[in-house]
Specification:
The structure is a homodimer of 360-residue chains. With 360 residues, chain A is an alpha/beta fold. Chain A is 22% helix and 21% strand. Chain A is globular.
Chain lengths: 360, 360
């Protein structure tokens, strides 16, 4: 039995693939409901990768999780918000009758002599292989005692008054853009020398969508402090004190917004991997280096310098992982399915290509 | 000598390819300057295909014209306006030292016993092969005696007052969205049963970008008449009368906006092709069926039902055409260049894949 933990784009994408391969002995365990993380996004947040139905000409929608499909086509939108993407995942799950057990929280994964024992709120589950497909959004990195993490925001309309934003990535920029739109003053504090607005790999920089949105912010409402790390946020009942690494303190009555990122592997499962700087070390085929048979799929995957933190990237490893699992079971992957995945850029094994620099 | 007519994305993309292949005996003849058509777009118009630098993972920017490149990366934008895309083309032309003769208008192409004689405002030019790469924007279809064609609009700010818009394609929708944003009332008249908002091929429907923009128009300012063809626009010095095929007449003091499309082949060159319903019949390798050695490249290309009217589509035929020309000259295409084009989805020969329907 293959156990997949999490029914987001990774879990549902893997389930779809297994159905195509006619492998029925799998189950996706989902703590809440299919696509749950997306429903908890801030109401205003959209996928930063644009959807476009170019798959007829070999350019698969950046947010598709299966070949020959397009959220842009189905949802008639280019930048899809969390709720609609969650609905899209539910649609795929029901249309292709993908096995999901909802409301099942996996609390621990215990490696056995052979296979794994999963401890869940619905009892024990035995699995031969386990694929972690939890995503990142539901395990925010909370570095400080105070601060509203990006993941905690239901809607930016709730966030009133001048705010300190801590961070420099996509979520910090999104917070800044949304508060700016509401006319709120913002002080952005981040540790980079400057905001990284260009890099050939979109995972290392701000997306074109966000760069474009930044062009229309009102700069008079924004102050930026580069090159400073926040070391502490304290609260005395009235004021929040934000302390920087050089000792400077900024005081504010409004709780700061902390855009301090997400765990690439849920903390509860980190002891199953060799962790290094918050990242899981993986075999060439995305398995744990400590426990063969346990795989990581989704945005948390890293292979040396290659970062898979976009749907259009991590979907290219679905078949790599499934192929390895089936091989260990003596099952050959159906050639027709494999060629579909290859044709639609959903099967990436040669990672040397992934750091291509831009010519123009 | 290979003569290329037009220095837009098609001409510059072909020039780049020839440079890569070390073929130096070519010239791009451009009536005005590199990227000219884009500079004449309405100021507010943007490319409807979103740019994203996904080429490191096999997903080439939809608006790129060469492998391993990305306008999103270079311009730091997702939806690029005409002026910036024109600048982008100029950048490529100068960076790769692509041969262009500006200010050279080709007035006629005369097939000779062998090759072609091009009549231009700079004198006669002899060419062995000719590639028409004129694009469509600079040859609008003007079906009526009156009306401001979409191509004539410099900025929507110039267009004041309630307007009749004629058409149902991308340009009609863009006109509607821009006028709506300015608070102008619009009457949209078009011949379709309803606005075609979904089709698996983006060339047959409205783009996700435009669908999304349509979600935020103010519907109170818009009236739509489906299923009616405009047969005439007359003007008595005060009022414009727009006559429909059922005899109904709409009168307005403001000149109607005609979004009646563009010629796929400039009228002056149409006699060089077998034309059928306004489309050029082409060989399997995009040559004129009347004059071998004359090719059509760019948005006007059709192969049976396959429509190439997006950059991400028509760029896939650059190498197909160049390969055919070089073959006739006894030159083999460099395998390394070819494999780059194949790897980045820029070499499409099997057209059976292009009508893939969507699964989701």
């Amino acid at each position: 039995m293959i156990a997949i933990i999490g029914a987001g784009p990774t879990g549902i994408g893997l389930g779809y693939l297994l159905e195509q391969l006619n492998v029925k002995d799998y189950m996706i365990y989902e703590r809440e409901t299919v696509g749950e993380s997306f429903y908890t996004w801030p109401k205003e947040t959209k996928l930063i990768t644009p959807s476009f139905n170019g798959h007829g000409f070999g350019l698969l929608d950046l947010n598709a999780i299966m070949p020959d499909s397009s959220p842009a086509f189905t949802l008639k939108q280019e930048h899809i918000n969390g709720e609609r993407y969650g609905e899209y995942l539910q649609l795929i799950q029901s249309q292709f009758e993908i096995n999901v057990t909802e409301g099942c929280e996996i609390e621990a994964i215990e490696p056995q002599d052979k296979g794994f024992l999963l401890k869940s709120n619905q009892g024990d589950i035995e699995a031969d292989h386990v694929i972690l497909a939890c995503g990142e959004f539901n395990t925010p990195k909370r570095l400080f005692d105070y601060g509203i993490h990006y993941a905690d925001v239901e809607t930016w309309k709730d966030i009133e008054g001048e705010r300190i934003i801590i961070g420099s990535g996509e979520s910090a920029m999104d917070a800044l853009i949304n508060l700016n739109k509401q006319g709120e003053r913002v002080l952005l504090i981040h540790p980079e020398k400057s905001l990284v607005l260009n890099h050939h790999d979109p995972s290392q920089t701000i997306s074109p969508y966000t760069k474009e949105r930044l062009l229309s912010v009102n700069p008079e409402l924004i102050r930026v402090i580069n090159n400073k790390r926040v070391t502490n946020i304290s609260f005395d009942g009235t004021m929040y004190d934000v302390t920087l690494d050089d000792g400077e303190v900024f005081s504010t009555t409004n709780e700061p917004i902390t855009c301090t990122g997400f765990h690439t592997v849920p903390p509860v499962f980190q002891q199953l991997f060799e962790m290094e700087n918050g990242l899981a070390k993986l075999t060439e085929l995305d398995a744990s280096t400590k426990f063969p048979g346990l795989y990581l799929c989704g945005p948390g995957v890293r292979q040396s310098d290659v970062i898979f933190c976009f749907i259009y990237k991590f979907r290219q490893r679905f078949l790599v992982v499934i192929e390895d699992i089936l091989k260990s079971m003596g099952i050959e992957v159906d050639e027709e399915v494999k060629s579909d995945y290859i044709r639609q850029n959903m099967y990436l094994t040669d990672l040397s290509c992934c750091n291509t620099e831009c010519q123009c």
